[in-house]
Write a structure and sequence with these properties.
Antitoxin_Rv0909/MT0933; 3 helices; Antitoxin; mainly alpha
Length: 62
């Protein structure tokens, strides 16, 4: 399962049950860290942008 799929599944679970938003936010951080390791330092900034956008959306759901 790739990184994007994990993010999408995490977001889907959160949208179905907003009570999971806190846990999902932590999961997004972990997935982002894993993505940085796999993609390397060249892509770290892009990973940060994506995880930041996802977390912003999660915060709006709370």
């Amino acid at each position: 399962m790739n990184i994007v799929t994990k993010l999408v599944q995490t977001i889907s679970r959160t949208l179905n049950d907003p009570k999971n938003a806190e846990r999902a936010s932590g999961a997004v951080d972990k997935i982002g860290d894993e993505a940085k390791k796999r993609l390397g330092p060249d892509r770290a900034e892009q990973v940060d942008k994506v995880t930041g956008a996802v977390k912003d959306q999660l915060n709006k759901r709370r």
